[in-house]
Structure formats: structure tokens, C-alpha cells
Amino acid sequence: MTASLVRRHPPHVAPTAHEDAAARARDWAEIQERMLVPLHEAVYERLDVGPGTRLLGLRCGAGLALLLAAARGAAVTGADPSPGLLALARERLLPPNGGAPRAELLHGSPASAGAFESYDLITALDPIRGPSGDPHALAALLTEALPRAVPGTAVVLAGWGPQERCATSSVLRVAAKLADPLRSNGGWRPARRDDLEEAAQRAGLRPDGSGRVSCPFGYADPDSAVRGLLSTGLFDAAIAATDAEQVDKELTEALHPYRRADGTVWMPNVFRYLIARVP
Known about the structure:
By secondary structure, the protein is an alpha/beta fold. Helices cover 39% and strands 20% of the residues. It is globular. InterPro entries: SAM-dependent_MTases_sf.
């Protein structure tokens, strides 16, 4: 049983699947999602997101990136396959004084979007939960959204940077090792240099610039780090192949080199983004 669930349930009472999914979604929203804020802000600054921008966020999660864009004055729509994360996004995007939510949120495919006839910015900015490591899957995700775009629309993809600049890579190898000890193949694989370009090419997009952003993963303590990393879903295959207790144990050990004297956990990372255009 994971550390997070030990704390949330009385002894000998196992959580239901619904409770487990809800806890994971909350851990993502409260712990892990904020690690990507520097990436979101860098992209929005470079593309001058503001009033007049019509943005579609793919794999929008709990809506933090949408909230940042809405705060700049953009009209935003988000799509995600997780009902639990979308529920949290709806809470997050409610105006403080009531009224209509500041975003249209769609479960699953963006094809049902109805707020705007088209978008001038489409983003896939979640390299952790999203399919950034699989160009085929990322291209398929983009292809669903491109009918909502017009020529010249900017499409921004994000992925992990080089392994040597991503401390979290050494921790995520635990997921690959436990999921398939023979082939070291699991819910994560190291990023390849041209993953994003390959996805853009498969989707018929024209590359138009790129950048790198520092996104350190910082946690208050090892328990928070374990909860945050488990919320990504990258360890699900490892848990299915072994058990939650084994994954917790090895994940905690892998985090040890990144513990600081005050008990916090700090892992420097660099993420990469690609700007492409609809021809």
C-alpha cells in the first residue's frame, strides 16, 4: 500500500478504485502539476498569449495551464480523458465571485468543442502524463484537434529534455525496470532528440522554433515526492507487474540522492518545447 493511502485510510481498510483514482487526481493537482508552471509561462510569453488568443489545451489535466492562460486574458478550452482531473479543473477555473467558468472543458476528444469555430493556439504541454515519448500517439492526439485550426495556427508540443539534464530520469527508470525487468520497458522511456519533430511531421505540421525550460521538481519531503510521482501514472505498469509496496520502496530509495539536509527533495530538470504551424 502506498504511503499516501496509508495516511488516508484506517488500518486494514483498503481504498476502493474510485477512492484511489480520486486520491491520485488530487495529488496531481496539489503536488505535481505545478512543477510545469515555468514551461507554461515560457511558452505563453514567447507566443504573446493574451486577450484575443483562442487556446485549446490538450491533456489539460487539472487545468493549471488553462488558468494561467485565462489570467492573461485568453479564451481557453481544455480536453482530457480523466474525469477526476476535469472535475478538479472545473473547481479551479470557477471565478472567485461566482459566474460562468473561465474555460470550456471537454472529456476526451477536442472534436466536440463548440465555443469557437477555430483556435489560433493549440498546446500539448504535459510531457509527464501526455504521450510526448510516443510520436505516434502524440501525432494522433494532434490530428484530433487540427480540424479546429486554421492555416498559421501555432501548435506547441512539450517533452523531456536530455537525460543528462533531467535528474528525474534516474528515478523514472524504476518504473521501467519493475514493469519489465528483462527489457526495462514500462510506462516511461528516455526522450529521443527528435520525438517532437517526428510527431509534428506525422501530424502534417511545419516546425517554427523550439526552446528549453528549467522545471525542477521540488517536494516538501520524500512522502510528497512519492505521492506526486505516483500521480503521473508512469508507475502504474510497475505496480501491476509487482505490487504497490515494492514500487514505493524502490521509488523512495531512488529519491535518496536528491534529499537535502532540510528533508526536502530537489531534482533539476530541463524540458523542451517545439512550436509548429498548421500549413
